[in-house]
Amino acid sequence: MKKRKISFQIILRISAIILIICTTLSLVSVVLFKKVLTEQVMSSMIKSRDDGAKLIEMAISSYIKEVDAVAQRYDIRSMDWNIQKPVLQSEAKRIGFECFQVSDISGNAISTNGENVYVGGYPYYGKVLAGESCISDVSYEERFKKMVVVVNSPIRNEQGEIVGVLSGVADASFTNDIVNSMDLDYDGEIFVINDAGYKMAGVDFTGRTILENNIFDKNYGPDTGYGQYRQLQIKMIQGGSNLEQFYMNGRDYFLAYVTISNGWHLGIIQDRNQAMAIIYELLTIMLIVGFVAIVIGIISGLLISLKLRPLKKLSLSITEIASGKADLTQRIKVESKNEIGEVVDGFNTFTGKLQSIMTVMKESKESLVNVGKDLNLNTEKTLHSINDIFEKIQKIGVETTNQSNSVSETASAVNE
After folding, report:
1. pTM for this prediction
2. Cα separation of 71 and 96, whole Å?
């Protein structure tokens, strides 16, 4: 069976412990931080959404108040175009409108540019005649060759009766100026759509004659990469406010939306991956820290293995003793005063006593060998003596037999 070095086991186990600890801490930190960051990003987007809605409503309200103030002037309420025209030309220049136009209750209008137009068929006209100042949706105006919005206010006579409508025609780019003034924490876009899904802001109107509408655009169909974005715009025009996540063209996004005045809906899109990028940075840092910790663990294991080197020598010495080939005069050098040093010192003491025992046994062996040799010599001498005695006894027996024979012969001779 192949043995593993204790140093290798120490390094392996320290590295495994560090890896488990770092991985656990990283996962817990990332999960918790991701939750906190997601909540923070969503809270920030909701705040940006609500602040943006207020900003747009303030801008619209400011334009409407400007037109209301002009409509309430005595010279405008006179409904005398010769009096109204120079005043409105001056006011249009001050406010930054393309022009002002005054229409009667039938919808026939004349503008400061000298054009006569019919505005009675526009959706906003009925609202103004009902006494409500309002701003129109963005639309293409052939007269100006651009997208415009119309800010409207009723003109009342001294009796308070509505006798006409004052309309200020503004470049639609002012809606983009509003949304562009809003700062986003991450890459994204801000847009405004009306109840029909047409973009009122968040799209470049330069050179356009038709408004963008993602809901009716086949490129934003349910089966395309923009399908979820289109579906959320449908939810937007249904009213209310919310913050949702969606997938668009290979990336994840947040969308915060809210309904604002005039039937418009503000939406703020931000790249979720970019907003959560700090999570990936944290994970990278955790991986680097984990790698460094593992390296430190390996180095620590190596240092510990160096401290365990006397145990390796101790193991080799015990193996040599077990094999019978040990040099009992050698001692392991003790360099530490810890438990390992105590073990090595104890082994050195054991080796010294074993050496003493072996020395005594060796001396005893030599004495026994000498005694054996003397005993063997004495035994041989005794055997020689016994052999001599036995030979003498045999000789005596032979002589005795011979004498007996002689006696017998003598007795026979006498008897004869």
Report:
1. 0.65
2. 16
